[in-house]
Structure prediction request, 443 residues.
Amino acid sequence: MNVYDSARLADLLELDHGAPITWKRTESPEEADLLLLNTCSIREKAQEKVFSQLGRWRKLKEKRPDLLIGVGGCVASQEGAQLLKRAPYVDIIFGPQTLHRVPEMLQRNQEQHRRIAVVDVSFPAIEKFDVMPEPRIQGHKAFVSIMEGCSKYCSFCVVPYTRGEEVSRPLDDVIAEVAHALAQGAREITLIGQNVNAYRGQDHQGRPVGFAELLHYLASMPQLVWLRFTTSHPLEFDNALLDAFRHLPQLVAQLHLPVQSGSDRILQQMKRNHDREWYLQRIRALRDIRPELHLSSDFIVGFPGETDDDFQDTLRLVDDADMDFSYSFLYSPRPGTPAADLIDNVPLPIKKQRLDQLQSKLAQSARRKTNAMVGTRQQVMIEGVSTHFTTAILGNTFNNRLVHIPCEPTWLTEPLPTGQLISVNITEAISTNALIGQLLIVS
Ligand code: SAH
Prediction:
């Protein structure tokens, strides 16, 4: 989501929107007149990185006092003007829902005689989508934001407080953005949001449209090859969504469905509002429809009160749900969340030991899945030129494994049709996320 937001902010700044200044991108901070940091506060570690980065930028500003520094995203939203106590040299502070106001905030900042920071971390919700230009698409993959925020209030999570509650974009806006991306050459669309399956948009007549219905609309667009989404919540993984997997071949058989823990007791403490069996039952139902499903998850290790038995339940869930590569994190208390009031009583060395154990289990599981692809035929999306062999194509599978495909040198004399699918026999696994394949037929 932050990658998407940053790209849209860059598009906005580079656009000539009548403001006295338009900006051009540079790769070097030393050369820049404006430095913007889009931040994340989901975990403590991410938040700490913000202040170390700002510390480096401060030195640049000491040399060049005219340099402008802006901080946006969830740390900005959480801290607001408080951020100026630790970083008084910051000029503007904007939140995830006010990034479209950055040009105006910069202007306001510059108009002042004595420069005081301009702060706006309010939640005008959907307004930004109406103001921002259509995203520019480079390559054949595009992210499209369909909803933002979260109303689940999991006890550990800061999102409802920093991004606000769930707000869905209108159906027509999403369709228009996807159509625009496809017209610019995108072939793989990833729908993004903090809880995409909580999507409750409206069509132009004000009729409510759910997530599964949205998927049906998008899958009817002829240029769309692959459709993905992230992140979804197990609680709202309803039968309509299962049906979408049954009927829409464009929906890839890869799902990132965070579960956080395999222990019912911890799930309850986390306020996930479902138990382990609900999760497993949803996955079994999806595998009945798509046996080839590759499932990934997020896990939090060392939540307050997590016992060794709870942790063993999490390890068992990796097997029971037959998980692919997944993300796992040490629990960190986030300001303002209910769990921050619980006693963080799992000693750090134990947390780290559990995290290591879980991560090595997940890595083994992912490697087994990659190995199991050897000998299968896969539809591979062309990504570009591979450097693994002298002449080879680089492709990507539905479950995000890279495939190096040796080819005739003449194939590479023209630009490759990226985003097109080719049939490939997988002959070898060279790492957890890379394979070698043999080209069959151009589809
Ligand atoms: N919407 C998703 C959450 C996405 S946030 C869901 O409801 O499952 C990305 C991941 O960061 C979460 O899945 C969780 O594993 C992790 N995370 C969130 N808060 C955390 C915290 N306080 N400590 C450690 N990890 C956390």
Summary: The chain has 14 helices and 20 strands. The first strand starts at residue 34 and ends at 39. The mean pLDDT is 94.
